[in-house]
Amino acid sequence: MSNTMKHKFSNVLAVQALVVVAWIACPAGHAQDTKDLGIQLAGNPPMQIIRREPPPLPEPTEDFEVREGFQVITTLDAFRQVTKKDNQKIRMKPGVYRAMGVDPPVTFRALRAEEGKEATTQEQIFAVTGSGNHFDLRGVVFETPVSVQNTLTRKTHMADTWRIAGSSNTFEGGYFRNVVDMDYLTYHNASNEFEVVNDNNTFLDCIFVIKGCKPYGYSDYYGKGREAYTKLNKHSFMSLEDANGTQVIGCQVYNQSFGHAIHMHKVDGVLIKDSLISGVLRPTNDIFKEKVGLARENDFNILYRGKRPIPRNEVIPLTEDAIRSYNEVKNVVVLDTVVERQRGCFQLLCVGDITLENVTVRECGDFSYDLTAGKQGKVVMKNCFADVAYNPVFNLTRGELPFEAFYEVTILNPDKGVKPTRRSSLGVICGDRSTFIFHDGTTRPLHRAVNKLVCGGKKPLKNSQVTNYTKATLILEKNVENCVIKSVGPVQGQGKNNKIIKIRPK
Q: Is 21 exposed, middle or buried (0-12, 13-18, 19+ CB in 10 A)?
């Protein structure tokens, strides 16, 4: 983490550390009870979840800074009006502003849409169609209730809370939060809190609290797949759709809904810097305490991708991925950022360059890092960190085989209240002509059962170099070949034509 980020978040993280200590003291281990009827049925006991609490709302004040050249506005209606205009400097009076209505629908055609693709009519609470604006929102809280989102269309991908259709806008210092003012299962949410569909928009020093979806509390056990187990209503933080040059700088995202934090589609260029993305986990044992709902209705079986029992003694994410790429994404840069408790913290399968530097992942919900651009781009993962908590660090199995990629990660201990599961490990790596460096940042020994790294397997590791300064056991599958393996920890398996060198700890 950079000095800038440490300074920016020092007060927030110091307060939130007290919450984490309370979780560790719980009998269930690193968990918190919550009885929130916006996310669970009344007939169930309080849900045990693992999450970081968002900062308190800023205190409204009449004494606030107005920079030179900025126009002051004092109402939500005035804000709606200025978001439709260009090249302004707007200072909004600090305070809490709750949306009670919506903007008119917007007809929109993607910037670089394929020939013949028709325009669509989108619905949203706020339609930001102006460009070149700087919105100074320091001390401003925007509340978007699920009751208002419930009035938007329920057609798939046709409604969002904020639609950023203008370009080159800066949103500075705002606190954006969902308010769950209806009971669980009675509301329908917009697909994304923010849908960015134009270039060069910046979110600077903002806080986002994302809530409201159904079903909730089960990861993706229900609501996904060809069979209609139940109707899925996800709610993600931010979608980047054909929007180049988006920047998220100095922001805090508290993703407390089933949906991605940031997901990208047909994007060339995104910068995420000095930020925090924090999700939610749940021990699977807590699901078995439910008296009503989908789990009990299905005899505590998972339905997605085949009926099977919900596993015990595991920890699952109640969100989707933190930073996720889909089609035609390239030039993604993430610097000095912390990601915690999301499903896949980094799921970047791109067609161009990926750069991660000074990135830390804590308590991933499924895996910490999956980064590849195949032969279409350069992957550089430098001076990054990850703990070995509930799930594996690496999962390089889903995209193209990494080629001439560079991965450097320091392995950390989890918090003392964290108990490993059968899925805990350093994970699986693969690649061609790639470099992997593992540093040891632990202060106490990892359990032998989790302190292992699989090389190869589903995909080969060849013509590569692995330098392991940790005590982890490296397991070389048969398709590891022509590699140089330097390791402090033991090496099992031989592969083919590999050079294995025992080294000392740094």
A: exposed
Q: Determine contact, residues 28/48, Cβ cutoff 8 Å.
A: yes
Which residue is listed with tokens 């034509």? 497
Q: Residue 111: pLDDT band by 50, 70, 90 thresholds? A: confident
State CA 499 to chain mean position distance.
38
Contact 316, 282 (CB under 8 A): yes
| DSSP three-state, residue 86 | coil
Closest CA to 75 of 91, 56, 92, 50: 92
Strands 301-302 and 308-309: antiparallel
Backbone angles phi, psi at 226, to 5 degrees: -65, -40
Task: Please say whether the beta carbons of 278 and 272 come within 8 A.
Answer: no
Residue 19 pLDDT grade (very low, low, confident, very high; cuts 50, 70, 90):
very low
Helix (H) or strand (E) holding 482: none
Q: Which helix (H) or strand (E) holds 296?
A: helix 294-297
Distance CA 114, CA 137 (A): 36
pTM: 0.94
pLDDT at 228: 60
Structure tokens at 427: 């994970």
Task: Tell me the C-alpha distance between 276 and 282, whole Å.
Answer: 20
User: For residues 167 and 203, is the Cβ–Cβ distance under 8 A?
Assistant: no
> Distance (Å, rounded) from C-alpha 92 to C-alpha 301?
50
What whole-number distance in Å separates Cα of residue 392 and Cα of residue 450? 9
Q: Which residues of 356-394 are buried (b: 16+ CB within 10 A; e: fewer)?
A: bbbbbbbbbbbbbbbbbbbeebebbbeebbbbbbbbbbb
Residue 390 · residue 398 · CB < 8 Å: no
Half-sphere exposure of 3 (CA within 13 A, CB side): 0
Write the DSSP assignment of 147-177 as a string of letters: HHHTTS--STT-EEEEEE-SSS-EEES-EEE
Residue 151: which of 143, 136, 161, 141 has the closest Cα?
161
Length of the chain: 506
Q: Which residues are CB-neighbours of 124 under 8 A, at least 6 positions away?
A: 102, 103, 105, 106, 152, 159, 160, 161, 162, 163, 190, 195
